[in-house]
Amino acid sequence: MNGLLTFEDSVLSLINKVSEFFTNFTFAYAVEIFLFFCMIFYVSKILRDNDATRLMLLYWALIVVVGVMIYTVDLNLFDKGFFLNFIIILSMFILVMFNVEVKKSLLDLRLNPLAVEKNAQGGVAEHKSQAEVEKCIADIIRALQNMSKNNVGGLIVLSRNNLPRQVLQSGVMVDAEISTQMIEGIFFPKSPLHDGAMVIKGHKIQAAGCFLPLTQKTNYPKDFGTRHRAGIGITEVANVSSIVVSEETGIISVIKQGNVQRYADYDTLKDVLKDYYWHELPLSDNKKK
Q1: Distance between CA 31 and CA 18 in Å, rounded?
Q2: How far is it, in rounded angstroms, from Cα 44 to Cα 76?
Q3: Contact of 132 with 203, CB cutoff 8 Å
Q4: Which long-range contacts (CB under 8 A, 24 or more apart) does 70-75 make?
Q5: What is the CATH number of the domain that holds 196?
Q6: Are strands 172-177 and 252-256 parallel, antiparallel or unpaired?
Q7: Range of the domain at 69
Q8: Number of structural domains, the chain?
Q9: pLDDT (tens digit, 9 = 90+) per residue, 160-204?
Q10: SS3 state of residue 168
């Protein structure tokens, strides 16, 4: 009976605290709750976008466990201030761990990649037919395989209009239709643009001879030179994919979010390019593998 009364008293106490909270609710409380929610939402988004599902579940589990301990267990070690500080410190620790992804997310937000894509003249970019998209894919793959066969180095960035402006300004604006001959011509060893990166935006070669930021990580094979480090570096600061052809070995590598997939064959390249052009291909081709 005493246990029942104690439980009832606890429930009444909780109800009184909730009632008191809303009675004394101020604008400052609203701002604090909003900012707190935004921080938790942003941290969860960073973890979700980078396939850190287990870490995200652990993050939420810790929030729930500590919250329950504070508001249901009578421990002098815990109070509201400790709860807020715990979540803030935990969130900042996770954001530091994912600092590259945070910078990439902020860059995408500033460039607004969901906005309507515009061409160099300011007009709205027109969608191509399935046949035209498949021709672009075929021309890019053919050029990469020819370059691989002849040990011609190359670096292609697949952009969705979300590259830092200084990257494009470091090269030469091309604004040309995609073709095997054009790609191979730009990367021809005696070409003045062959050492830089080619930027493909949609159905056109946007720029060539561009300089990219180099990755600062060192846990890569010894045969990775400047071209590979640049291909990795750009995917760490922008939400893009890059394709590298090694001048020494002819090996084709596909890079996404700093992760390198070497020895990319025809099927791998086709999957990457289908993923890039997914909105203009049939539904059956749009399914990610």
Answers
A1: 18
A2: 30
A3: yes
A4: none
A5: 3.40.1700.10
A6: unpaired
A7: 2-97
A8: 2
A9: 888 888 889 899 999 999 999 999 999 999 889 999 999 999 999
A10: helix
Q: Is the four-CA dihedral 178, 181, 187, 193 of positive or negative sign?
A: negative
The whole-model pTM stands at 0.60
* Sign of the Cα pseudo-torsion (248, 249, 250, 252, in order): negative
Amino acid at 108: D
Say yes or no: 187 and 246 in one domain.
Answer: yes
Helix extents (H) in the chain: 2-23, 27-49, 53-72, 80-97, 99-111, 130-149, 165-169, 180-186, 226-237, 266-276, 283-286
pLDDT at residue 78 in the model: 52
pLDDT score at 80:
61
Whether residue 273 is contained in a domain is answered as yes
Is there a single domain that holds both residue 16 and residue 80? yes
Asked if pLDDT for residue 276 goes beyond 70, the answer is yes
Inside any domain, residue 102: no
The kind and range of the H/E element at 242 are strand 241-245
Q: Is 68 exposed, middle or buried (0-12, 13-18, 19+ CB in 10 A)?
A: exposed
DSSP-derived 3-state class of residue 122: coil
Determine contact, residues 139/179, Cβ cutoff 8 Å. Answer: yes
Return the ∠ at Cα 133 (arms to 127 and 138), rounded to 5°.
Answer: 160
Spatial contact of 184 and 152, defined as CB atoms under 8 Å apart: yes
Q: What are the tokens at 108?
A: 């995408």
Q: Which two tokens stand for residue 120?
A: 């160099």
Mean per-residue pLDDT, 269-275: 94
Same-domain pairing of 136 and 265 = yes
Cα of 32 vs its chain's centroid, Å: 29
Residue 186 lies in a domain: yes
